[in-house]
Amino acid sequence: MDITKLDMRVKNTKADIALPVFILSMINIGFNADVIAADKPLGQINDNLRITGEFRGRYEAYDFFKPGPAANNNNEYDFWALRGRLGVLATSRYVDGYVQGEYSGVYGLPNDAFATPGGALGLGALYYTENHRNTSPSDVHLKQAYLNFKFDPLGLNGLSLKAGRFEVKEGLEYQTGDAKFDGLKATRVSQRLLGTFDFAHASRNFDGVSTVYDQPQYNISISATRPTQGGFNIAAQDEISDIDLFYTAITSKKDALLPGTEARLFYLYYGDERKTQALDNRATSQRPLLSNADLRIHTVGTHLLTVQKFGPGAADALFWGAYQFGDWTNQTHQAWAYDVEAGYQWVGLPLKPWVRGGFFQSSGDANNSDGNHGTFFQVLPTVRLYAKFPFFNLMNLNDAFAQFIVSPTDYTKVAVDFHHLTLSERNDLFYAGAGASSQDNSFGFLGRPANGNSTIGELVDISFTHNINKELSWNAYYAHAFGGSYVDNFYRQKQDADFAYVEFNYAF
After folding, report:
1. pLDDT 10s digits, 155-214
2. Phi and psi angles of residue 271, each rounded to the nearest 5 degrees, phi first
């Protein structure tokens, strides 16, 4: 990276960064004074009132694949981002209320990294184009504001109804309290199809209603919502009113049917009639606007997760599967995806080594002129959980992966991942993106013709996480992608890519 360029970017963004940093610092000083005086947890005013806060700072650097010849093909750049959240939670016997605001700022984005031809050269290009070609966009918006009505006092134990703006993370309908089990749920089960995309600097939220019936043996969750903007679009205040979502799941809790095992059945409906075009492998002129022929996609699926003590450690296994049907504009939609994984951790050994591996496959579309659409649709996912270097997503994809994890201390984790990536159908597109982030500006997914090439390549990465204390943590990530036949054919000037970031998080 060019250090001189980096210094200039830092100087140019000091004014933008100073205000949110100052506000959060003053808030933190006030809360710490309250803790010293009253010996209460940070932010806890009394038994019924709590202040919550989060602050995240991240530096990202890219050395992306490079197409050529092309205009605006800057593939090497870096940028900074800050995100601050402040909330107030009030609780009572009958109802809880929560209001949370969010500041999102991204500084020093490249203005020449969306190649023609070639498309986005890394996430910096997506932030730039989704935010009206602003190199340092920032925004303050309402993240959450809801009332949660509790029916336990009326004799309906475990029943609640939430209305307003809130988060939806499918697959995380409840927590077991087992750190390892919940960690697998959070990183290998949840949000494959519907989530907040919290890795982005302005997260996605949902306006609507949600009801939960939680019992010792099972959990039933139902929500009817519309998503907000967010993700790569920093202006996350507005609701995307032309998208309708309905999600329901019944989860047999851990140990209810089998020891160490949980199972979920779910249904997800996605309806989209925005004034934009859906992305598929037809010519652009053959794809109608969603406002004229919308998407109506139904997804039914399941997951089964188990962790079992075995020998000197613990074995884990996961199955996830989904089938889709409905209307893809003026085509009939039928698609599928599945994932199988297994692992073993030697809990009694130093570093607690953990080896995992698996295979994911999703359907693609082999024929763009038969009136049928067969590409698996990832809806509104937290894509970065399953594509840590998110130049791809889980559409028309085969992903054979292995993972090695060690824990040098109780507060530190290091993970090394390897992925071999190929396309399911070489007559389809190579897809990327995380779903709708704007009302009409873009569909939310990108795609490029495979042109008969099926091998995307290999991805090797390393993740480091350290929890300094209960409130403060930091993590670092580095990935290198080796291009295969698809990359070699499309990115003629550079067939490998690098992505790295360092991030600090403070939450109370």
Report:
1. 999 999 999 999 999 999 999 999 999 999 999 999 999 999 999 999 999 999 999 999
2. -120, 130
Contact 374, 396 (CB under 8 A): no
Listed in sequence order, the residues at least 6 apart from 283 whose beta carbon sits closer than 8 Å to its beta carbon are: none
Tell me the per-residue pLDDT of 309-367, one tens digit each, with 9 for 90 and over: 999 999 999 999 999 999 999 999 999 999 999 999 999 999 999 999 999 999 999 99
Q: What is the largest CA-CA distance in the chain?
A: 71
Strand, helix or coil at 180? helix
What residues contact residue 441 under an 8 Å CB cut-off, 6+ apart? 130, 233, 276
| Alpha-carbon gap, residue 362 to 197, rounded angstroms | 20
CA atoms of 391 and 421, how far apart (whole Å): 11
Per the CB < 8 A criterion, the answer to whether 445 and 396 are in contact is no
Beta strands 138-150 and 119-120, pairing class: unpaired
Given the DSSP bridges, would you call strands 313-328 and 114-115 parallel, antiparallel or unpaired? Answer: unpaired
Place of tokens 């009326």: 154
CA distance 18 to 14: 6
Let me know if 170 is exposed, middle or buried by CB neighbors in 10 A (0-12, 13-18, 19+).
Answer: buried
